[in-house]
Design goal:
About 30% of the residues lie in helices and about 20% in strands. Strands 10-9-8-11-13-12 form a six-stranded mixed sheet, sandwiched between helices. The chain has a five-stranded antiparallel sheet with strand order 3-2-1-4-5. A two-stranded antiparallel sheet has the order 6-7. It has about 350 residues and is of the alpha/beta class. It has three domains: about 70 residues, Roll (SH3 type barrels), CATH 2.30.30.140; about 160 residues, Rossmann fold, CATH 3.40.50; about 60 residues, no CATH class. α4 links the parallel β9 and β10.
C-alpha cells in the first residue's frame, strides 16, 4: 500500500497524546508467526515479530512504534478499543481479535445461521471492547421474509441498529457508507458462510474467493483464514476475521449488562438481593421477561462469573460452597433478608 497520512489511518488525539519518544507510528495490517505487516506515512513495511511485541500482545489494528535506527518495533500504543475472546482450547488466556475498531459489523444471514443467543454474545463482546455494534443481516435476496429476521433481532437486542441487505447488490456500499469514511475502522465478525468475504469485496473492491454453504444447516467453510486490514473504497479501513463459531466471552460483565439492560434494570427492583427469579416473592423479572431470554441472561452471567476461572479457583469455590452447605445443615438455614425499601 502507498504512503498514507496518519489521520487517514485512524490516528487521533488519543494516540498522539501518548509518549512517542521520536519513534515512528505504524498501524498493523496483518500478523504472522515471525513478522507483522504495517502501514504508515512512508507506505507499507514488514517488521520482525519481536519478543517485546509477543509479551505485550498485538493484534490487527494496533498502533506500534518503530525505532528508526534499528528498524525494529518497540511497543504497542494504548488502544482505543480492543475486541477479544477467551481461548476456547485453554480457557486460560485471551485471544485478541482486533484493536482500535470504531464499528463492529456483526454479520449473520437470513437463513438457519441466524441465532439470537450467538448474536447476544457478539454484542456483549463489542460493548465490552469499546466498539459500536451494528447487526448486518445478509442474503436477504434468498429469504422469503427477510424482515422477519430483523424483527426477531430487534426484539431480543433493543436499541440495536439492524441492516438487512444483499451483500452482492450494487447499493450495499452506499448503505454502509456512514461507517466507512476516511479515518474510520470497521471489523467484521460472524460465522463461516454468512457472507463476510462477499461484504469485504463489496466495500474494498477486492476479489477474494467465496465458498458455498451447506444447504442442511447453512454453515460454510472458512474463506478467510487470518485477520487482515484493508482499505475501503469510502476511505476507511476494514478488518476481516475468520469465521467464529465458538465464542467464549472474556471478562464481559459490562458488555452483558448493556445487552441485557432491561433485565438488569428490573432485577434491581426485586425484593431480595439474591433473587434467582424463579419462585421468590416480589420478583420483578420473572413475569415480565420471556423465559428463554431470562435463561440466556443467567447462563451468560454465570459463564462470565465462573467460566473463566482457573482449575484451582474452581476447586476453592466448591470447597467454600461445601463448607457453607455443611454449616447450614448443622445450624439450619438463616432467613433471607429482603432488599431495603428505597423509601426508608
Amino acid at each position: 500500500m502507498s504512503a498514507t497520512p496518519l489521520p487517514e489511518l485512524g490516528w487521533n488525539d488519543r494516540f498522539a497524546s501518548q509518549p512517542l519518544d521520536d519513534l515512528i507510528p505504524l498501524r498493523v495490517t496483518d500478523i504472522h508467526k515471525s513478522y507483522i505487516g504495517t502501514i504508515g506515512e512512508a507506505g507499507s513495511e514488514t517488521l520482525n515479530m519481536t519478543l517485546d511485541l509477543v509479551d505485550q500482545g498485538i493484534t490487527v489494528g494496533d498502533w506500534v512504534l518503530k525505532d528508526p535506527e534499528t528498524n525494529q518495533p518497540v511497543r504497542v500504543l494504548e488502544r482505543q478499543s480492543l475486541l477479544k475472546r477467551r481461548n476456547a482450547r485453554t480457557n486460560m488466556d485471551d485471544q485478541l481479535i482486533a484493536a482500535n475498531v470504531d464499528t463492529l459489523f456483526v454479520v449473520s444471514s437470513c437463513n438457519k445461521d441466524f441465532n439470537v443467543a450467538r448474536l447476544e454474545r457478539y454484542f456483549a463482546l463489542a460493548h465490552q471492547g469499546g466498539a459500536e455494534p451494528v447487526l448486518i443481516l445478509t442474503k436477504a435476496d434468498l429469504a422469503d421474509d427477510p424482515d422477519s429476521y430483523a424483527k426477531k433481532a430487534a426484539h431480543s437486542l433493543p436499541n440495536v441498529t439492524v441492516l438487512v441487505l444483499d451483500a452482492k447488490a450494487d447499493t450495499t456500499p452506499e448503505k454502509l457508507a456512514s461507517y466507512c469514511g476516511t479515518g474510520q475502522t470497521v471489523a467484521l465478525l460472524g460465522t463461516s458462510g454468512v457472507g463476510k468475504t462477499t461484504l469485504t469485496n463489496a466495500l474494498t473492491g477486492l476479489n477474494q474467493l467465496t465458498k458455498d454453504i451447506r444447504g442442511s444447516d447453512a454453515r460454510g467453510r472458512h474463506t478467510t483464514t487470518a485477520r487482515s486490514m484493508h482499505r475501503m473504497n469510502a476511505g476507511g479501513w476494514l478488518i476481516d476475521t475468520p469465521g467464529m463459531r465458538a465464542l467464549r466471552l472474556a471478562d464481559a460483565r459490562e458488555g452483558l449488562e448493556m445487552v441485557f439492560a432491561d433485565i438488569e434494570e428490573l432485577a434491581a427492583q426485586c425484593r431480595f438481593n439474591d433473587c434467582a427469579h424463579e419462585s421468590e416473592p416480589g420478583c420483578a423479572v420473572r413475569d415480565v421477561v420471556e423465559p428463554e431470554r431470562l435463561l440466556r441472561w443467567q447462563k451468560l452471567m454465570n459463564e462470565d462469573t465462573f467460566g473463566n476461572e482457573t482449575i484451582a479457583e474452581t476447586r476453592e469455590r466448591y470447597r467454600k460452597v461445601g463448607k457453607v452447605h455443611a454449616g447450614g445443615k448443622a445450624r439450619g438455614q438463616a432467613k433471607r433478608k429482603p432488599r431495603p425499601s428505597p423509601n426508608r
